[in-house]
Design goal:
By secondary structure, this protein is α+β, with helices and mostly antiparallel strands. It has two domains: about 45 residues, no CATH class; about 90 residues, no CATH class. Helices cover about 30% and strands about 15% of the residues. It is built from five helices and six strands; from the N terminus they run βαβαββαααββ. The strands form two sheets. Strands 3-4-6-5 form a four-stranded antiparallel beta sheet. The chain has a two-stranded parallel ribbon with strand order 1-2. α1 links the parallel β1 and β2.
Length: about 150
C-alpha cells in the first residue's frame, strides 16, 4: 500500500519513485494499492481506479474508461478541474461547496449537497454501488433505472 508516495515531490523524484514502484511490483509479482489525489499519476500508473468521496467509494472502473467517460458527478468534477493546455478558459472548473466533516456527514448521498444533478432521493437515501457492466460500478441515483444490477 502506497499512500500519497509522490506528494510534494518534484517531477524528477516523482518519476524515480514511480519507476521504483513499478520495478518492485514486477520483481515481486504483486499488486500495489496506490492512494493519491494526483490524477496524472493515476493515469500513468494504474489499470483500475476507485474514486472515493467522503470515505465512500463512488466509482470504480478501468482507468482508461474512467478518464474517457466518468459516471459519478464527483468524478466528472475532478476530471473537469484538470487544466487543459488547449483551453481558452481563464478559470479552472471548481466543484462548488465543501467536503463534509467526517463527523457530520449528510444523510443520503454524501455528494448530494454539491451535486449539480441531485434529486430529492439523493438527500434522503444513500445509493447502492451499482454494477454497470464492463467491470464498472457507480454509487449514484442518476443510474437507478440502469439495466445492470446493484451491489
Amino acid at each position: 500500500i502506497a499512500d500519497e508516495p509522490t506528494t510534494a515531490l518534484d517531477v524528477t523524484i516523482q518519476a524515480q519513485i514511480l519507476e521504483l514502484m513499478r520495478r518492485i511490483k514486477e520483481e515481486m509479482d504483486m499488486a500495489i494499492i496506490l492512494i493519491t489525489h494526483d490524477l496524472g499519476v493515476i493515469a500513468e500508473v494504474t489499470k483500475r481506479v476507485m474514486v472515493m468521496y467522503a470515505g465512500t467509494v463512488v466509482e470504480e472502473a478501468l482507468v482508461d474508461d474512467l478518464f474517457l467517460k466518468p459516471y459519478h458527478p464527483y468524478t466528472e468534477g475532478l476530471l473537469a478541474s484538470i487544466p487543459q493546455l488547449n483551453s481558452t478558459q481563464e478559470r479552472l472548473h471548481v466543484i462548488e461547496g465543501m467536503v463534509p466533516h467526517a463527523l457530520q456527514r449528510p444523510r443520503g448521498c454524501r455528494f448530494a449537497p454539491r451535486c449539480p444533478y441531485a434529486e430529492e432521493i439523493c438527500q434522503r437515501t444513500e445509493p447502492a454501488l451499482l454494477a454497470m457492466g464492463g467491470g464498472r460500478s457507480v454509487r449514484c441515483w442518476k443510474y437507478k433505472n440502469s439495466p445492470q444490477g446493484g451491489e
